[in-house]
Amino acid sequence: QVQLVESGGGLVQAGGSLRLSCEASGSIVQINRMAMGWYRQAPGKQRVLVAAVTSGNTTDYADSVKGRFTISRDNAKYTVYLQMNSLKPEDTAVYYCNGNDPRLHITSWGQGTQVTVSS
């Protein structure tokens, strides 16, 4: 089973930037074939997909973050990043890293990291 650990959350003013990191550990073969994603969950709301990147580096974004957030992966470091720029108060949420193994149909989640954007 792949383990995911997020870091990089915190408090930032509107218009500021943060970079989240998600470090994976476990089976290297499994990690490299996983599609990775960042989800977020605001208080009282459902967890939603923010950005995703496949093993082939194809990316996808929620409309609400397009042009502001960038997802990337460094396979040599087994780490996925989410660069968040021009942050807005509505970006406030707990951000979760997700990994999905398309071969074994196994999904892994990190513990989450809090992002708070003040107005």
The number of distinct helices, counting runs of at least 4 residues, comes to: 1
Number of distinct beta strands: 11
How much of the sequence lies in strands comes to: over 45%
What structural category arises from helix and sheet content? Answer: mainly beta
Question: What's the main sheet like?
Answer: 7 strands, mixed
Mean pLDDT over the full residue set = 96
End-to-end distance: 40 Å
Order of H and E elements? EEEHEEEEEEEE
Shape: globular
Instruction: Identify low-pLDDT runs.
Output: none
- Which bin fits the share of residues in helices? under 10%
Summarize the helices and strands and which ones pair or pack:
Blueprint: E1 3-7, E2 10-13, E3 18-25, H1 28-33, E4 35-41, E5 48-53, E6 59-61, E7 69-74, E8 79-84, E9 93-101, E10 106-109, E11 113-118
Parallel strand pairs: 2-11
Antiparallel strand pairs: 1-3, 3-8, 4-5, 4-9, 5-6, 7-8, 9-10, 9-11
